[in-house]
Amino acid sequence: MIFINNETIGGVPTLHVVDREKEQAKLPTIFFLHGFTSAKEHNLHIAYMLATKGFRVLLPDAIYHGERQKTEQNRDLKFWEIVLTSIHELELLKEYMVTNELGNDQIGVIGTSMGAITMYGALARYPWITSAVSFMGTAYYQVFLEEQLKMLETKGVDLHDLRHQVLHQIKPYDLTVQLERLNGRPLMIWHGKEDQVVPYPFSEKLYGELEKYYEEHPHRLKFVAEDRVDHKVSRQAVLSSVEWFEQHLLKDQIS
């Protein structure tokens, strides 16, 4: 039986999903990071599928989202604050697992849209992440920021000071300027070709730049592009992500 518990870990409301029979065991752990305007509950179907395979899954609410949302908040201008806060909070969640002896050294991170963007920054910061999956995200922090600001400027928002402030904050987490930090860790990239929110070419370009880093272990890098799919995670993407973590957080350790 799959058990779902709503916990607060380090001040972060988090859904903890695990097979009840394995609740106190040291299990490979996967952190699922939700998208912009979404919440932790919206990805429970994927967490359930992962838990049935033997994983412990933690789904945190990002700041200004879910249980942490306040109706008066203007989240459009706080996008990168949300991303950076989630990167820092990911370490709190990981330390909770270590302190309570609930996880082993096999740790996966999966994210959807903003959550995938967060995941890429976490890969740049944390070498303890073992494997990762991106659903329609982008690792090109500085480029994506500029596109966001152009869109906001069309609405008459003065962003001069914000641009320099945010660029300074996000630069250390821009994985695309330090791809060697991946160090061959397994990464699956999925994107729908019709996505206009986080444009598909971001993922295609990243995969092309990463191929040379995975020449010795090409099976550790996977790119899945789907035709006629926009900014929505398909069932194929979900199934592929579950298989990916089975391969790289379970089977790789047995073989």
TrEMBL record:
Pfam families: Peptidase_S9. Residues 95-249 form the Peptidase S9 prolyl oligopeptidase catalytic domain. It comes from the Bacteria. GO terms for molecular function: carboxylic ester hydrolase activity; serine-type peptidase activity. GO terms for biological process: proteolysis. Keywords: Hydrolase. The keyword Cell membrane does not apply. This is Putative hydrolase of the alpha/beta superfamily.
